[in-house]
Amino acid sequence: MRELFERLRELLRGQISPPLRVSAQSNQYWFDEDSAAYAEIDVCDDDGFVVVVVYGSRDDAFITRTWHRHAAEVWLVDPEDRTITRALRDGQMTVLDSAQTLTSSLLPGVVIPVAALFLPH
After folding, report:
1. pTM of the full predicted structure?
2. For domain 2-116, which CATH number applies: 3.90.1570.10, 1.10.260.40, 3.30.50.10, 1.10.357.140?
3. Which of 91, 77, 65, 9 is nearest to 42 (CA)?
């Protein structure tokens, strides 16, 4: 699974330019003494989080709610189902499978074929 996130990190790095930045590693963030969240990958600009990538499925509402306080978009990567759920702060959700392409209006120029992330069974 770690390889999947590293592939995604490299694809993002190759397509994102300043002022956007891709994290070099997974991070646990503490927002205050009662609030924390883990991100496999985060994309930030000078104002903070833009998109965060986490391990999870479309049903992980707690993770999505937590991150939506800090980032407008959350990508939930589900290696078992081989899907990526793109969850927007406004409640829109799109589940993408290996036949589809991951894009975001917040990351201009980023185009990632979902199939490129998941190794064949």
Report:
1. 0.94
2. 3.90.1570.10
3. 9
